[in-house]
Fold:
Amino acid sequence: MSIVRVPLEDRSYSIRIEPGLLGEAGRLIADLGIRGRVAVISDRTVSGLFAKTLIGALQTAGLEASLFTVPDGETSKSLSQAEKLYTELIRFGLSRDGLIVALGGGVVGDLAGFTAATLLRGIPFVQVPTTLLSQVDSSVGGKVGVNHSLGKNLIGCFHQPVLVIMDPLTLDTLPMRERWSGAAEMVKAALIRDAVFFERLERELEDWMVLEDAGRLSEALAACCRIKAEVVGRDERESGLRRILNFGHTVGHALESASGYGVFRHGEALVYGLAWALDLSRTFGLLGEAVFQRVDSVLRRFPLPPIPESVDAERIVEHFTRDKKNKSDGLHLVLLNDIGRPVIRPVRDFDFRESVGRLLNRQIINL
Ligand SMILES: NC(=O)c1ccc[n+]([C@@H]2O[C@H](COP(=O)([O-])OP(=O)(O)OC[C@H]3O[C@@H](n4cnc5c(N)ncnc54)[C@H](O)[C@@H]3O)[C@@H](O)[C@H]2O)c1
Ligand SMILES: [Zn+2]
Structure:
């Protein structure tokens, strides 16, 4: 089993990764010393696939566990859904010595984590991520929250899980498009922190996508978790270093919102955002041509929907300006000096506008 530690003093926890680990989850959770009831929160698809195994494992370990399901998809990340869960969980008798378990992708993780953070002023929670994106990114780091009608992830807080249990075999049923979406975050992780892992990714990316070898995939998941754990361990609340985890995300998010949510999976928009950030890094003379070409050829291996013609550069610039207003020190973007070496730079509106023009004119990552 790979074990990655997230070092956060009294909030430290471990991420356990192993094929078949879902069946062991009862024992791992019982070892936490939980005395109260356990509420497993999941979505309809994931609960249909894995809830029986997980609840069975919890009950075998002597825990009183019950399942609470929400509809699939981003719309479940809402205050109204959280409120429904509060009612069900209070009726269930969940107490502060109980536990919430998030079984699913990033939507369930963010919603269940937010519910755990707020109900009874905070209940411990465990993440059992079942999408590649949630295994390599969202289940680690303690950012939890829901959406608001004015924007994604606007309501939330930091609430670290007490344990993360990852079973790469759960990815078997995950649609291919979702796997590639998660892989975008793996590329991001390698680019900001780990040149050796990037080399491995260059060799093995397609093998991971078809889940060819669960052992090697587990090692890749652990490498990503190690990167995130190290960054979060040094800057839990994103006052500095943690910003590098947003590499590629300014334009990625803007593209997601400007094209209307639903066109891109998060990771697909992120690939465009990464390509944009690389292009700007090269334009600024930060990144050499050879490295640029190397990373660009990895990004071209992703199957991506084209950017819709209807996406207007102004919408993307608007998003950028809004982000800038939200920061007292102007908008600093994460760019790249080399693989594994990010730099944070202020970017002028003019340069931003010009590079977005290049992206929309298909001069960047020309498909
Ligand atoms: N908290 C963070 O740090 C953080 C970081 C990145 C993303 N996020 C959030 O994560 C969310 C996206 O997460 P996601 O990409 O995992 O999407 P998701 O949770 O919506 O899952 C995608 C789809 O896959 C299904 N699914 C999940 N696991 C499956 C499996 N093993 N087999 C078959 N189907 C399965 C789900 O039912 C869902 O329909 C967004 O809301 C985003 O804001 C949070
Ligand atoms: Zn992301």
Residues 137, 185, 249, 266, 270 surround zinc ion (ligand 2) (CB under 6 Å).
